[in-house]
């Protein structure tokens, strides 16, 4: 083994100076600099919340004319249905009539099927006029929330439906309103009514509290103002479609429309409006068919106890409050 020279012994006695210098790490590998406490820097923007149901038309494809195009599609399909009902009237003597008196199974069948065309018409208007699926016209979830609809049907029966029955009972027992007895062909009236009235009620709500309300709110563009204006406009239009001769009946329909509109805005879909309308329409049908049309205030002609029709307003308010709680859980 060769002995180390003087230079090598001197180098061995020097202290260790560490490795030779290397390149600095890349920016991706550097640890973020510590931020002094209290100086957190600019906050990251919070993600935007979900689009309200009534502003569903204000998407990327929004244009002011699209709701008008959708209304034109709906009107065209309803016009075809109206022509078919006219042909039916010529052949059978029974046509569509929004006046529920006199109550007959043939009149119910033709009228309800005619109005039920509004449902497929709205579902077609969305892809044709807006280029998207029809789910936006049903709820914020993009579909009909069937479990919520089932729960709200029970809520509507315990609130609005019960109050309608109490109003009729008050008019008959406390105001001596006339009870003419059940209508002719009662079994057929009940069978046809129970099958078609819910379908008609659902179609009307999808049209008025769904598409038309969304169109009005979209033109306004502000959530709260749009919801209020849409509620007033659609409630008046729907009530006027059934006639304005009977003031009590007209006001009752306006109240029902406003309650349905409030429930739609609070739950984010048409399920609440469908449940409310279906229950009220079926209860009125059953009472009118069994007791006679004149026994139901707001359904038949003016008479004693007409003011009892407004008792149902209490049930409408209770339904809206309970529907909002159940809709928030979905």
From TrEMBL:
Keywords: Membrane, Transmembrane, Transmembrane helix. Residues 188-281 form the CAAX prenyl protease 2/Lysostaphin resistance protein A-like domain. Residues 1-49 are annotated as: Disordered. Residues 31-43 have a biased composition (Low complexity). One of its GO terms (biological process) is CAAX-box protein maturation. InterPro entries: Rce1/LyrA-like_dom. This is CAAX prenyl protease 2/Lysostaphin resistance protein A-like domain-containing protein.
